[in-house]
Amino acid sequence: MKNLFSSLASIYRNIKSKIAFYPTLFALSGLLFAFIMLYLEERGISGYLVENIPILVVNNGDTALTILSACITGLISMMVFSFSMVMVLLNQASTNFSPRLLPGLISDHKHQIILGIYLSSILFCIFILFSIQPTGDQYQIPGFSVLVGILATVICICAFIYFIHTISQSIQITFILDKIYLTAKDRLKILLERESEQSTEFPDTSTWKEYYTETSGYFRDISRDPLLNFCKDHKTRIEILPVRGMFALQGIPLFRSEKNLSKDELKGILRYFHFAREELVSNNYVLAFKQIAEVIAKAMSPGINDPGTALNAIDYLTELLRMRMLKSDVSYISSEGKTYACERAVNFEELLYNLLASLRTYCKHDIVVVQKLGKMFSYLQEQQANESSYYNVLDREAKRLLQDAQQSIDNKADQDVIDRMAKELKIDLSQDSNKKLL
């Protein structure tokens, strides 16, 4: 039963991230509501309202047909216009910022819910339209359902106004950066809370049996509780080899097990490893670092040349790096003081190098952005870290940045600024020091 729930939860997470999830739910609910209203019409709800509250009922067949036809036409036009704007947003985000931002924008629930409201209202009005008999008497016309259709149209107009408000926000880079930051921050908080409750004792796994992937895709997640229960039930421990977010090719080592597993046991444990064809920040916080770094690099490219966006993005990057410094490079899955599984993360040195490698290329010629990055390093060196080696990593990357900037900038005043930053960061930019670093 637990395995079934785990599989269903995985399927639900996959479906929920699709752009059609909420629209489909709303469309089905609109269809169901239309049949419920038709059933109530057969039970005489409109006839009752005609006699008691006639103002709520449209009792002319031609009028009802005209109203619903106008509502359906207007709603379809509104829906087409609204989601043409969504496509414009996605195209602009891809062109000006980074194509990697698109999955996060597509999975925005607000836009999906608005599309669902449109679809449910259109389907409701269409099915009510089919039931109208223009030549029937006032008791045969679904007058109350027509009123509900009018109210649904009014709700869609309000949703359209809200959509215009949200789309004007979503197209702003500060909004996009803030969303990425908050999603990654929530994910890091969860991981830090888990680390505080875990035991960190784990044996050497070099002699353990390796097992391989049977599929390919981005290694997105694992079902922690079912995996923990599996290890307890089969009296084994495992080491998960791929890093979350990496693209796992079919046939590469997936995990090592302390105990040799049978085919049935292997088939059971593989269900707890989840792969996907797309990356989301909510599943892999490292993607947030990549996205923000790409925004900075794109903003500083010659075609865009937008240092203001780069400066804003560096602020968000600084705060996420501060949180990452609190996290260990290895995560454990423990229960009752015993560790049953360990999982690798992108280590801090590799993460920072990959970020700064691209930033050095695009930012080293701009003294303002270099200053901002220098302040980032100065701030991070004063923060708490899970491991003391993180400070050495910061020193190395800061030195590489300032050395590249020193070689790229010729202005004497700017050179003096770089020298002052080096003194503040206690970095020696001499050639002898550079050889020692290499």
Notes on the protein architecture:
A hairpin with a 2-residue loop joins strand 7 and strand 8. The model is unreliable at 432-438 (pLDDT under 50). A five-stranded mixed sheet has the order 1-5-3-8-7. Strands 4-2-6 form a three-stranded antiparallel sheet, with no helix packed on it. The protein has helices spanning 2-16, 21-42, 45-52, 61-96, 102-106, 109-130, 143-170, 173-196, 224-234, 263-270, 286-299, 307-324, 348-363, 367-381, 389-408, 412-424, 431-437, and strands at residues 209-212, 217-222, 238-240, 247-248, 253-257, 273-276, 330-335, 338-344. The two termini are 56 Å apart. The protein is α+β, with helices and mostly antiparallel strands. The chain has two domains: 2-171, no CATH class; 184-191 and 285-325 and 345-437.
List the helices and strands and how they pair.
Layout lengths: L1 H15 L4 H22 L2 H8 L8 H36 L5 H5 L2 H22 L12 H28 L2 H24 L12 E4 L4 E6 L1 H11 L3 E3 L6 E2 L4 E5 L5 H8 L2 E4 L9 H14 L7 H18 L5 E6 L2 E7 L3 H16 L3 H15 L7 H20 L3 H13 L6 H7 L1
Parallel strand pairs: 3-8
Antiparallel strand pairs: 1-5, 2-4, 2-6, 3-5, 7-8
